[in-house]
Amino acid sequence: MTDAREPDHPADQAIAAELPPTLPRIVIRNKIDLAGLEATSSRTDGRAIVALSAKTGEGIDLLRRAILESVGIHEDMEGAFLGRERHLRALDIAQSHLTIAAEHLAASSPPLELFAEELRQAQEALSAITGAFTADDLLGEIFGRFCIGK
Domain containing 125: what range? Predict the structure, then answer.
């Protein structure tokens, strides 16, 4: 095992040279248990260097933190929302339809058919995230709650 302060092996340098220079990098030094070293995490030359033991699990928490930091997530981001780009687009589309629906509803004589259509389109945008839920499904939910006796 090499010390985390030593320069990379020439083969490692050749691989790194083929990667885009802006790509976040984490160098992982494993088997600290065999070398009698402590788990450490540091930053050098724009890279995170983590020394750990995959066998004992020592330093895995340091690796998790390094991975999260490399994608811009920090421990002080409590409540932050993470989503795929297509989910965020679907939320934006749904929000725009809800905004238009609210404008229709605020009118002195609300065009309820346009209001309902905007709600339907917002629901359709959200179904891209949650899965298909059609207007018929919605009507089934609504009418399924009515108690129709004999």
Answer: 85-144
